[in-house]
Design a protein that fits this description.
Blueprint: H1 5-22, H2 40-51, H3 63-66, E1 81-82, E2 86-87, H4 113-122, H5 131-139, H6 142-152, H7 159-171, H8 179-184, H9 193-204, E3 221-223, H10 240-243, E4 251-253, H11 275-287, H12 293-304
Antiparallel strand pairs: 1-2, 3-4
């Protein structure tokens, strides 16, 4: 048989196609990578500020109150409790893996974690303080002044440095090594058949159009209620409150699904108490699909494999107040 240049070309092309077909397709979700700490003194300062309730008017509410690191970085309430037992207008999203989000808050009004950190301190319905009073409190505590100098090079204390430190700590709150991450990295025994079937449904049904990337979400704003309208119990308008555009009404940041087993209840109004309810509602309202009981159970089984290694660190011992530290006012 005579081998012609055309035959050689066809053989080479066929080999390339076979190699391409044998290569596994890239997954829409990527593994979470462990945090890399470049300024440990700044992170340690931020950790103390994150847990310090003296940044609130009452002296009782800290960042950890609504984003409890023992509870998946949230508070497991439909809406959070603010100063003087005020009912919050919206569900508290998890702080875990929030570094991967395109913006912060459900409506994306803060461009990053630093900008977000200053919001609750001055919000009258949350910590009910002012940035000026928060600075005065920290300036009055000698150990804090020394730690600001150690972290920043000078002992100046201002709201910019406060939020920079809190954000630096929050940047470390990632949750690698979930069973799904292990599967992505090649451990094919990390997931069972039901969980794999759930992941296949998750992809084939279109969930990955919004829930993708390392955080399995957080990278886009989407309308809540695409196929059917969603009847919310929260007054939140979504992205339109930031942009002023009616087209953005009811557009919210897609939440991360990392650790979703821990971060109930679900949606911006906290109306879905269980993962099963959340999967059912999302299927009908966003995809126009009614999942069967078995399909729902498979997707839920997959979602539970996204729970990663939770932040594990020594709780900070907060520096004592001085005689000059402003006193909290919990009942005003």
């Amino acid at each position: 048989m005579k081998i012609t240049p055309l035959a050689i070309a066809i053989t080479a092309l066929t080999g390339s196609l076979n190699a391409w077909a044998a290569k596994p397709a890239a997954e829409p979700i990527s593994p979470i990578q462990p945090a890399v700490i470049t300024n440990p003194k700044l992170v340690e300062l931020g950790k103390k500020l994150y847990f310090d309730p003296r940044l609130s008017k009452s002296g009782a509410i800290s960042c950890n109150s609504c984003h409890n690191l023992s509870m998946g970085g949230t508070d497991n309430l439909k809406t959070s409790i603010g100063h003087n037992w005020q009912k919050g207008p919206i569900n508290s999203p998890t702080v875990l893996n929030s570094r991967f989000a395109l913006a912060q808050f459900w409506d994306g009004r803060a461009k990053d974690l630093k900008e977000q950190a200053g919001g609750p301190i001055a919000n009258p319905g949350e910590m009910a303080f002012t940035h000026e009073l928060a600075v005065d409190v920290l300036k009055s505590i000698p150990q804090y002044v020394a730690e600001f100098k150690s972290a920043f090079g000078t002992d100046a204390v201002d709201i910019g440095r406060i939020t920079t430190a809190i954000a630096a700590f929050e940047e470390t709150l990632v949750t690698p090594d979930s069973r799904f991450d292990k599967w992505l990295k090649g451990d094919k025994k990390a997931l069972n058949e039901k969980e794999l079937a759930g992941y296949a449904l998750f992809k084939n049904s279109g969930c990955v159009a919004c829930h993708n990337g390392p955080a399995v979400g957080g990278t886009s704003f989407q309308k809540m209620g695409v196929v059917e309208p969603y009847k919310a119990t929260s007054p939140a308008e979504g992205r339109s409150a930031v942009t002023g555009k009616d087209a953005d009404r009811f557009n919210f940041k897609v939440p991360t699904l990392r650790n979703v087993e821990l971060t109930y209840p679900y949606f911006h109004d906290g109306e879905a108490a269980t993962l099963e309810k959340a999967v059912d509602v999302m299927g009908r309202l966003q995809l126009g699909k009614q999942f069967t009981t078995d399909e729902n159970a498979s997707i839920v089984a997959f979602l539970k494999t996204l729970t990663g290694k939770q932040p594990n660190f020594k709780l900070p011992t907060l520096p004592p107040s001085s005689n000059a530290t402003p006193q909290p006012k919990p009942f005003e």
